Amino acid sequence: MSAPVDHLQERLLDASESLTDIMPSAITLAMMLRHRSMAAWLRREFEGYAPETELPAYRHDVSGHIVARSPQYGWIPAPVDKQQLEQFGHLDLHEGVAELEKICMNCKKGNGHRISLPPEHLRELQQKINLTAELAINVSRSAYCDVIRTIRGTLYLWTSAVLESGLAGDHNSFSQEEKQQVAGLDEPTRFWREAAESLHQLPVPDVREAGFLERMFGRAG
Questions:
Q1: Residue 90 dihedral angles phi and psi, to the nearest 5°
Q2: Which domain of life is it from (predicted)?
């Protein structure tokens, strides 16, 4: 016998467990409980969102900084004003959990991840600021990690609600009555909104940084 809900929550609170590794178990639990909406949301988070798919708020319009590549100094802040930053310095994050977590692990705290501007935006902004240099958006590590923690926090809140409904302990499967007990908890939007609002109060761990050897040999992904 196993305790799928209890065990999943324990893993969510364990900083050594990556969200990428936890997600398949979460999807399995959602299917066992017949939480179809939760399972569908988890699959989208795990696999990534198609370009035309509507994104949850925590993945939409993520802010960054515009940087320019200097032949002499490398990447430096670009000379953009607030209006230009507002127009060009935001992006949506469509990547799956594994890619987002890899970015977090491979970025040192205080650093960020650069994303090239789309060609049409690059040309337009170059003209606006009269600069021919390569331009990119630099999104902070913390912005990526907040997305991962929001997803992890959503799962924590969901499993907490399931446990509070009496589904703790050993289960190889759940009875029809038990599934009915938690039928009203198949609401991923409710839980991710709550997670986003209380992100820094939740007990879920932050994404760890990859160690030196992981960076050298690619073990972080």
A1: -130, 150
A2: Bacteria
pLDDT tens profile 88-140: 999 999 999 999 999 999 988 778 999 999 999 999 999 999 999 999 999 99
Structure confidence by residue, pLDDT tens digits, 61-98: 999 999 999 999 999 999 999 999 999 999 999 999 99
SS3 string, the chain, reads CCCHHHHHHHHHCCCCCCHHHHHHHHHHHHHHCCCHHHHHHHHHHHHCCCCCCCCCHHHCCEECEEEEEECCCEEEECCCCHHHHHHHCEECCCCCHHHHHHHHHHCCCCCEEEEECCHHHHHHHHHHHCCCCCEEEEEEHHHHHHHHHHHHHHHHHHHHHHHHCCCCCCCCCCCHHHHHHCHHHCCHHHHHHHHHHCHHHCCCCCCCCCCHHHHHHCCCC
In this structure, how many other beta carbons lie within 10 angstroms of the beta carbon of residue 73?
8
Q: Is residue 217 part of a domain?
A: no
Q: Are residues 34 and 68 in the same domain?
A: no
Q: Is residue 184 part of a domain?
A: yes
Identify the domain containing residue 28 by its residue range.
4-52+145-211
Domain count within the chain: 2
